[in-house]
Amino acid sequence: MKYSIDLTYETPREWAENAIKDMDSLLQDHADNERKVSAMALGLIAKCPDRTKWIPELIETAIEELEHFEGVYKFMEKRGVQLPQKMAEDKYMKQLIGACRSGQEERLIDRVLIASVVEMRGMERFKLISEVLEDPELKQFYKEIWTSEAKHGTMFVRLALMYWDEDTIYKRLEELNKIEGEICENLEWRSAIH
Questions:
Q1: What is the mean pLDDT of residues 100-119?
Q2: Which CATH class, in words, describes the domain spanning 13-81+113-186?
Q3: How far apart are CA 112 and CA 170, in angstroms?
Q4: What is the DSSP letter of 152?
């Protein structure tokens, strides 16, 4: 059984070359994203304490994402970069969340599957960043990050399949993946992960 997805939009290498032109802003955005994903994993536990099969992996994910945040923050400290006073609006996530269905169960499925797609996009973009960076420390850091993101991308599909049937999950995953690709294709390029 395949737990990963093939993204419908392939980010060009030029995106990464453009993104690293303002590495400080990229690091700030990356730090914000790691904090949000860690909080999202804990939020799923809070909203769904009855989904006991999920809890160990969500705890592990929250910790790993917090460790990624710590890693990004260390690079920020070295460069004298502070966390922004306020997290910037994430147009990418806003559009993805806007695609969620409104029924309680359907919305939960969508949120879990969106997490998978977002992690896979993160993997793709962190990989591109690692390939264009010249700083050996940052290059190694982003290489380690993208391999971790791949694991998280497949994990969310596995979690969904613990409580819902394959047809329901893969059909909706395909729909959300297509929506995400269209969103990415139309986003302006900036020094941010999305």
A1: 96
A2: mainly alpha
A3: 12
A4: H
